[in-house]
Amino acid sequence: MSLELWQRRIRKAPPSRVTREVVEKGVDIDGDAAPVLCVTGDSRGAGAFEKHWLPHIVMRGRAAYAVSVRGQGNTPRGDSGMAGKVHDLVQTAVSLPRRAILIGHGQGALWLAHAATRYPVHAMVLLAPRGLRRPPAAPVGGAKVLVAGSSGDGKSPTKRLEQVAGEYQTAPLLFSGIGHDFMTDPGWQALWTRSWTGSTKPTSDLCRRKCGLGSVDHHRRFSAVWR
């Protein structure tokens, strides 16, 4: 067998082109703050973030985006394997006006972990990750990583969060009083406590109780993600 024939056989074809659904809010915000791009493994795709998350991100002075990768929302299925979904996430991130903070929820965290080996994220949040045991590689550029989830989430249990966080040489941020669906479950606001999303204002006692955390300092360890 010739070298040329062997290379053709092992070379993977690029994913087919699809028209991706991208929901965006606050794109006219001025300033240098990194935009935020969200992806979930849920079949709702970008629609899962539209009601609550995107408006909250805009309130914090950042442009907010969510993408439906192939097979989600209004994005055609195309090549529905993981490579195609990672490709969609990378291409959406590349299209943004500046390097973005990426948030991956559920299986979206797995796609994000792979995308971050190709796209230089400003920072990334792996939220209630599923299917991710070990990172494929370190994020390019050494971006900061936050691993977060709920202590009562049976789909992404605490032990898994600790394992994933350990691979990134960090500790998970654990919340209580919320299920796996951080986008719409009751208590979804807990993730958006000001102290770890960049505000210098102290977190209220009520918020700390809702989050299941005892001190503001625990939140502040992760505030660098948003700088």
Question: Explain this structure to me?
Answer:
The protein is an alpha/beta fold and 227 residues long. The protein contains 8 helices and 7 strands. A 7-stranded mixed beta sheet has the order 1-3-2-4-5-6-7, with helices on both faces. Helix 4 packs across helix 5 (107-115). The model is unreliable at 198-218 (pLDDT under 50).
Strand order of the largest sheet: 1-3-2-4-5-6-7
List segments where confidence is low: pLDDT < 50 over at least 5 consecutive residues.
Answer: 198-218
Q: Give the structural class.
A: alpha/beta
Radius of gyration using CA atoms only: 18 Å
> Largest beta sheet, briefly?
7 strands, mixed
List how many beta strands DSSP finds. Answer: 7
DSSP summary: helix tally: 8
Distance between the termini: 53 Å
Order of helices and strands: HEEHHEHEHEEHEHH
Helix content: 25-40%
Strand content: 15-25%
Average of pLDDT: 84
Global morphology: globular
